[in-house]
Amino acid sequence: MSTTRSHGMQGWSTTDDGHRVLVVDLDGMPGSVRDARHATTEFLAGVRVGRRLDAADAAVTDVLLVVAELVANACRHAPGPCRLTVTLTNAAAEIAVQDTAHGYLPIAGRRGRPTGYGLLIVTRLTGGIHVLPAPDGKIVRATVPLPGRWPRPVPV
């Protein structure tokens, strides 16, 4: 059985195996990256049982950076809404952004055209980006490893 707390366009839940999951639906308009970071910050603070969220914690910083870059990429290159999902497992934060664009991700500039460094940074922090086809677009996934001292998700 899973439990869910909803707040506007976001919901937190706990899976049967104790993993915590955040789902945020975003409109893809300006402010979506800010909303995604804010929701993720609240979510991570909620699972750090008995300890305040430390914004300087490398794991938190990495998760927030990956969330921001993947959502920004979806908002910049895909028309319409997108959905952010963050799943905390025993060893990692699995981040997925579903958008309405089909095709590949331009990780490096092509034919001399400049591109940002966001996806290159995400690749370094996560060990790789995976793009999966979806019926109405694609899902971009990346996994941020969490250190052993990071508090583990607990069933609610």
Q: What's the gist of this structure?
A:
The protein contains three helices and seven strands, in the order E-E-E-H-H-E-E-H-E-E. With 156 residues, it is of the alpha+beta class. Strand 1 and strand 2 form a beta hairpin.
The first-to-last residue Cα distance is 10 Å
Strand order of the largest sheet: 1-2-3-4-5-7-6
| Mean pLDDT reading | 81
**What is the global morphology?**
globular
Strand content: 25-35%
Number of helices: 3
Largest sheet: 7 strands, antiparallel
Strands, count: 7
Structural class based on helices, strands and sheet pairing: alpha+beta
Task: Describe it.
By secondary structure, the chain is α+β, with helices and mostly antiparallel strands. The model is unreliable at 1-8 (pLDDT under 50). The protein has three helices and seven strands. Strand 4 (82-88) and strand 5 form a beta hairpin. Helix content is 29%, strand content 29%.
Characteristics:
156 residues, alpha+beta, 7-stranded antiparallel sheet, 7 strands, 29% strand, globular
What is the secondary structure topology, with strand pairs?
Blueprint: E1 3-7, E2 10-14, E3 20-26, H1 32-47, H2 58-77, E4 82-88, E5 92-99, H3 118-126, E6 130-134, E7 137-145
Antiparallel strand pairs: 1-2, 2-3, 3-4, 4-5, 5-7, 6-7
Helix pairs in contact: 1-2, 2-3
